[in-house]
Specification:
Number of helices: 9
Strand content: 5-15%
Number of strands: 7
CATH class: Alpha Beta
Shape: globular
Order of helices and strands: EHEHHEHEHEHEHHEH
Largest sheet: 7 strands, parallel
CATH superfamily: NAD(P)-binding Rossmann-like Domain
Structural class: alpha/beta
Strand order of the largest sheet: 3-2-1-4-5-6-7
């Protein structure tokens, strides 16, 4: 039987939590009782302005989600949600975020690095030779993706090291080092995030702080649902989405890790959500234990 982790004394920061994976993670941390600083650029009053191309491809007139809505969901589910607008590419914004967390909460127990700019340059083509992908993908995936994770970690780590405890989770995609054929930029970015989590673990372990990467499968984010002309209540009517999982499946994995007193033993590794579901005994929101998403060999 699934046991809900208890995180009522946990102070968490979830970056890029307006929608998608970040929103699912923040919700499940809230369900476990955590105080969650929900960060991103999209507020209810002013959505991020860099998703026009993806919105057009998805048939959306308005950008879904905001940090305000996610923070409210965290509170409804039993935690305490605090929305903080933060451009994670801006060092001043990130420094101000963690200064606020330290001033208000006195610590950070869990940082989830999830802010990702890769969708901002997506042109509808995922599978193509590297010489045909736009070079703009480098900036969106590395300068607005990998760098975001490093920047947030640089401010969170000293706060954790002082207390000799803490966990940094990096969201990534990993399938046993198989190549993400058809998108070299994406493959490089995700491999870099995985290596970042590993490298930070080596330097943080002597201080009692853990760093690890978590890899979900194919998630039914707002953009995925829109692209398939459906919603979370009707996705099962779309056979193409049969292998998908909700963002909250990933959220339950992060909550389980956050509640594991022995998490330092997992530091440095990449952990697939499906494997964590078996280990910790949780399921997706529909009761399924969704198998790991695995790439075709070839």
């Amino acid at each position: 039987m699934q046991q809900q982790p208890t995180l009522k004394d946990c102070v968490a920061v979830v970056t890029g939590a307006s929608r998608g994976a970040g929103r699912g993670i923040a919700q499940e941390l809230g369900a476990a009782g955590a105080t969650v600083y929900v960060t991103g650029r999209s507020t209810r009053a002013q959505p991020a302005g860099t998703y026009a191309q993806l919105m057009g491809l998805s048939g959306l007139d308005a950008l879904p989600g905001s940090i305000d809505e996610t923070a409210e969901a965290v509170t409804r589910m039993g935690g305490r949600g605090i929305a903080v607008r933060c451009d994670h590419t801006c060092e001043d914004d990130v420094e101000a975020l963690f200064a606020r967390v330290e001033r208000e909460a006195g610590r950070v127990d869990l940082l989830v690095n999830n802010a990702w700019g890769g969708h901002e340059t997506f042109n509808g083509v995922f599978d193509a030779p590297f010489w045909e992908h736009p070079l703009a993908n480098w900036e969106s995936m590395f300068d607005h993706g990998v760098r975001n994770h490093l920047l947030a970690s640089r401010f969170a780590a000293p706060m954790m090291v002082r207390r000799k405890r803490g966990l940094i989770v990096t969201t990534t995609f990993w399938d046993r080092d198989r190549y993400l054929r058809g998108n070299l930029f994406y493959d490089l970015a995700k491999a870099s995030m995985t290596r970042l989590a590993f490298g930070m673990a080596q330097e943080l372990r002597p201080h009692g702080v853990a760093s690890l990467a978590v890899s979900p499968g194919w998630m039914r984010t707002e953009f995925v649902l829109a692209a398939h002309k459906t919603d979370e209540s009707h996705w099962q009517e779309r056979p193409a989405l049969a292998r998908t999982e909700s963002p909250r499946y990933l959220g339950r994995a992060v909550a389980a890790l956050g509640g594991d007193a022995g998490v330092l033993g997992k530091s440095g590794a990449v952990h697939r959500v499906a494997d964590l579901a078996r280990e910790y005994g949780f399921t997706d929101v529909d009761g399924r234990r969704v198998p790991a998403f695995e790439l075709e060999e070839g």
